[in-house]
Amino acid sequence: MKKKAKRLVELPFSKSVRIAYQSIRARFFRSLVTTSTLVLAVAFLCYSLIGFNIAQGILLTGDPELQQILAQNGYDLETGVTLKGSAKQRWIIILSLLVCTVGIINAQLMSVTERFREIGTMKCLGALDRFVVRIFVIEAAMQGFTGSFLGAIVGGFTAIVSGLVTFNTLDFLPLIMDRILVSSLLSILVGMVLSLIGVLYPAFLAASMQPVEAMRVEQ
Amino acid sequence: MPSKNIVRVSGVTKNFDLDKLVVKVLKGIDLTIETGKYVSIMGPSGSGKSTLFNMIGGLDKPTSGKVFIDEVDIAQLDAYELAWLRCRKIGYIFQTFNLIPVMTALENVTLPMTFAGVGTDAAIEKGMHLLDQVGLTGRQGHKPSELSGGQQQRVAVARALANSPAIILADEPTGNLDLTTGEEIITLLKKLSVEERVTVISATHDYKMLNVSDQVVWIRDGHVDKIQDRDELEIQTGGLKA
Questions:
Q1: CA distances from residue B154 to A118, A216, B105 in whole angstroms, order as listed
Q2: What is the pLDDT of residues A115-164, one digit of tens each?
Q3: Which of A83, B130, B136, B222 could form a cystine bridge with B158, CB 3.0-4.6 A?
């Protein structure tokens, strides 16, 4: 019996993905709330980063008129060509990261905690701890990717449009395409990582509980 | 079938640590249950029957004492083997049904088979057959929220049978059901226990259970009060009626 046990409790990866997908679809509204928290958080982060990139781009254009507008908008111009992050800039980015972290972790924490009973039941049916964790991680990855991707698009678009409005030109854009890309990818990465962190802790917690304890948790 | 003991509980105690207070729920339970029997664990609420049920099912660990399933001490099993035991040896039925709300009836029934490595087609075929058996033909696509309490419990019964377990553990299976539906579930359990030759162990305070039980274990205040076989019971209920 012991030998058999090693081979005969399993959950194929494709099944995990299916269960995770189903779970997101079945709780569409709940997932939407979680995902939109992600979208907003990542959008804010991406907006801040790309806003910073645009300021750099304006400096790169070397156009004194545009730099004047930049200064009027509260950016500290320094003597060099590159704009080093001012204290204010750094503070905005740290703040947006903070909002992002708290928002995402909170949303994921809630969505796992309300499913403790389900986790307990799955364990009664013979699920290993790691099946449970895997399902939640896949779910978080799906939501994390979708949310972060949308967030990056929204944030980036908003930043560029506000740049256009402020400076009345998009001349800076070709100069900073690579930086914008890096900023967007960075925001997506941060969103996904935070989403995973947010889901891993409660999922591990629930999965390592005795089934009865998990089912006893008040819903 | 030889009357082998499928479950043996020896000197089991369980304490619950509440902040400043230790509640002794089980105070030394010894019990053997024979293969193929329909056993009811009876007792008033708070007597520890659900706790005992959880110990037998490997859902919680005893403070001291041992639980043997098929003469294997379940405290010695690692996580894999325990999962294997829960998956293949034991089918669980709960008072609150505990179906996975996002899955359809059929998916709920096939989930344990997925864990047991049964292929999708075979699992669906067996799942449909089980749903037929519990009288839910044509309801496979319904979510638990679209089913009545009795129907949900039927799905739970089908799910418990998915991997042809040796034991079905039912914790207050009729607790959330009305009289008639409860009786239907009891009849269904009895029928299946005879047809599939599974041992049914049910924690309950529902006296309707007495009629179908081969053996009744009375629990009082964390101790086994008395164990009655079916014939003794009939004499008693007969006496009551007369």
A1: 18, 22, 10
A2: 888 888 998 888 888 888 898 889 888 888 999 999 999 999 999 999 88
A3: B130
pTM of the model as a whole? 0.80
Q: How many CB atoms lie within 10 A of CB B128?
A: 18
Show residues of chain A in contact with B99, CB under 8 Å.
Answer: 121
Contact A131 B115 (CB under 8 A): yes
The tens digit of pLDDT for each residue in A54-108 reads 888 888 887 888 888 877 776 666 544 445 556 777 787 788 778 777 877 787 7
Radius of gyration of chain A (CA): 23
Judge residue A103's burial from the number of C-beta atoms within 10 Å of its C-beta, 0-12 exposed, 13-18 middle, 19 or more buried.
buried
Single-letter residue type at A126 = G
B57/A148 Cα distance (integer angstroms): 43
To test the contact with chain B by mutation, choose from A13, A122, A125 the residue with the greatest count of B C-beta atoms within 10 A, namely A125
What's the CA gap between A126 and B80, in Å, rounded?
9
Region at A72 (left for phi over 0; alpha for psi -120 to 50; beta for the rest): alpha
**Rg of chain B, C-alpha, whole Å:** 18
- pLDDT given for residue B242 in this prediction: 36
Report which of B100, B97, B101, B136 is spatially closest to residue B115, judged by C-alpha positions.
Answer: B100
